[in-house]
Design a protein that fits this description.
This protein is an alpha+beta fold. The C terminus is likely disordered. The chain has a five-stranded mixed β-sheet, with helices on one face. Strands 1-7 form a two-stranded antiparallel sheet. The protein has 28 helices and eleven strands.
């Protein structure tokens, strides 16, 4: 901290208790000046030689036959007046960053200008401020902090503005040239010389980061901080990411951790002002420079403290641009009254919708600029794949809420486009959790819920789980079994070429045999856990033989005849338009596995012995 000494005479000011100050002198005091609760017993001549205002007040007191002068609303109080009085007496006075603003305001109040005496106090303080204080990063911050208690004097004297401009200018200095710091005193010392094996090496000093200044200004009060950050942004030389980091650091420094402290009557107004200030200071790149996690946490606090709608919508728009970076935990925004759910699902739904609007606008813009289009269009969905994944995880979490309506769950699930969900495992988990926690769903509601899921997009593990899931409707279980059978059958590619027709046909035929398939599905699911049917041959006697029975640990089990009939019907439907109708009416539907050459039995007879591999 820099300082300046004024005067040369020894300090002879003495105190008599807390409320009386006097000067040791052979001459008796002839004037009493009252500042606040303190009385100063002083001499008229030295005071009047430096202060134009005291000249007027002493003259007025003499006309009233009084030796007391009451200084009303004196800036800086008794301590600031004492500095000015000592200067008038020529006594030694030390000015520094902590008291220079008070002394400057007091000197202005007393009109200690060059018109009264050359080299007066105002002139000397201004020289000190401009040549020392404003050149120092540390002192500029300290002085700015002291200006709050001296408003409006410090503002009118432009001390506040000069300090803010000094701080803002220093933030954009090349970090390689930084040799100061306020908070950590990180002065760059000379590098040490290390001797190894007779050779001298110069140790590399850790470089100063670009955001070296963000913690230093965190001690500023919110109004001053806002003005400093506004000045920093107006310079146009600061990267948005660093501004975002500065705002995050300030929020962490001042926002309380507990919800009770956030919404308490004592601090709620301050917290609301703090959040609104941070939101308005966010970089103009719509939050791209701020992490999604920070924006979501700020949104949660904004909801708790009750910020206005414009600030909340601004945060939501910024979050929608970076939703692919969000985590499920960040999206769990507590619901507020009168909502009955645990989390605010509607707000997340709005963010997702805005995200999709942004993505569509971005795609339209890119396609307009680039005629190649197709490749870029596909590659551009990388962020949406992350959005789909995190929303599926969010759906699984909110599905535990017994008060979450089916409509809300379905609407949010459908807000994610198909191409953002190449795999439906996450969606299946969410649906399963909702079915588990909402046992009162009707059959129609369960069907509507499960219609969100495409069983063809389930992985093997998810399919195996779904095939044994008693909470799923029979229609879904049968579809899972069918498509797993198709997936495991070698050489059958028709469903991959036209999966939509197969899915439609499966849905239509399920109604015909839903009642008879229930018990067979349970049998199939049990066998899927116990066995995997390998390739086998059919002798003419119709017995089921394994090719490599020596390596088998257990005997082969045939699928029940009803289960085979289910797959017979599904297979006929799966082949769909590519088969002749005569094959269906004759009762013959070709299996993925070939018939044994030389088998002279009828197709109807062969259907009874057909083998299917379940995996």
């Amino acid at each position: 901290m820099k300082f300046m000494k004024l005067g040369s005479k020894p300090d002879t000011f003495q105190a008599d208790g807390k409320c009386i100050r006097y000067v040791i002198s052979d001459l008796a005091a002839d004037v009493t000046i009252i500042v606040g609760e303190v009385k100063f017993h002083l001499h008229k001549f030295p005071l009047m030689s430096k202060s134009n205002r005291l000249q007027k007040l002493v003259l007025k007191a003499s006309e009233e036959n009084s030796d007391e002068i009451d200084m009303v609303d004196f800036p800086g109080g008794p301590k600031a007046f004492e500095i000015c009085a000592k200067f008038c007496y020529g006594m030694t006075v030390t000015l520094n960053a902590c008291n220079v603003v008070a002394a400057r305001c007091a000197a202005e109040y007393l009109e200690m200008t060059e018109d009264v005496d050359r080299g007066n106090l105002i002139f000397k303080i201004e020289v000190f401020i401009n040549s020392s204080i404003l050149c120092s990063w540390k002192d500029s911050i300290i002085v700015l902090q002291t200006t709050k208690s001296l408003l409006p004097w410090s503002e009118n004297l432009k001390i506040v503005g000069r300090c803010i401009d000094s701080i803002a200018s220093k933030t954009s200095v090349d970090p390689a040239n930084i040799t100061w710091s306020y908070t950590y005193n990180r002065k760059l010392s000379a590098p040490e010389i290390i001797v190894k094996g007779g050779m001298k090496y110069q140790e590399k000093i850790e470089s100063v980061p670009k955001d070296w200044w963000v913690e230093d200004i965190c001690e500023l009060e919110i109004f001053l901080y806002k003005r400093v950050m506004t000045a920093v942004k107006s310079k146009g030389r600061m990267d948005g990411a660093i501004i975002g980091e500065a705002l995050k650091t300030y929020a962490v420094r001042w926002l309380p951790d507990s919800v009770d402290a956030l919404i308490s009557d004592v601090h709620s107004w301050r917290n609301k002002l703090l959040v609104e200030t941070i939101v308005c200071l966010l970089p103009s790149d719509k939050g791209v420079s701020c992490s999604c996690s920070f924006l979501l946490k700020l949104l949660k606090v904004a909801i708790l403290v009750g910020v206005d709608d414009s600030a909340r919508e601004d945060l939501m728009n910024r979050i929608s641009l970076k939703l692919h970076e969000a985590s499920v935990k960040d999206l769990l925004i507590p619901a507020r009254s009168p909502q009955t759910t645990i989390y605010d699902v509607g707000m997340v739904h709005s963010i997702v919708n805005q995200c999709m609007i942004n993505e569509k606008c971005s795609q339209d813009l890119d396609l307009g600029k680039n005629d190649v289009g197709c490749t870029d269009f596909v590659l551009g969905h990388g962020s949406l794949l992350s959005v789909g994944k995190v929303i599926d995880g969010y759906l699984e979490e909110i599905a535990r809420d017994p008060n979450l309506s089916l409509a809300s769950f379905i609407d949010l699930a459908r807000s994610i486009p198909e191409f953002a969900r190449p795999v439906h495992d996450g969606l299946y988990k969410a649906i399963d959790m909702y079915l588990k926690e909402h046992l009162s769903l009707t059959k129609a509601e369960r069907k509507e819920l499960c219609s969100l899921m495409d069983v063809k997009k389930l992985t093997m593990d998810a399919s195996m789980h779904a095939a044994q899931n008693d909470r799923l409707p029979l229609r879904v279980v049968v579809q899972v079994l069918f498509f797993e059978q198709v997936r495991a059958s070698a050489g059958v590619q028709l469903l991959n070429n036209n999966p939509r027709d197969a899915s439609r046909s499966t849905t239509n035929t399920e109604e015909e045999w839903e009642k008879t398939a229930a018990e067979d599905c349970n049998s199939i699911k049990k066998q899927m856990n116990q066995t995997k049917i390998k390739e086998c041959e059919f002798p003419k006697n119709g017995k089921f033989l394994k090719k490599d029975s020596r390596n088998s640990k257990s005997g082969m089990q045939l699928l029940p005849s009803r289960s085979r009939r289910i797959f017979d019907k599904l297979w006929v439907v799966g082949k769909g338009h590519g088969e002749n109708k005569s094959s269906e009416t004759s009762g013959s539907s070709q299996s993925p596995t070939s018939m044994v050459p030389g088998d002279t039995k009828s197709a109807a007879s062969f259907a009874k012995h057909r083998r299917h591999s379940i995996s």
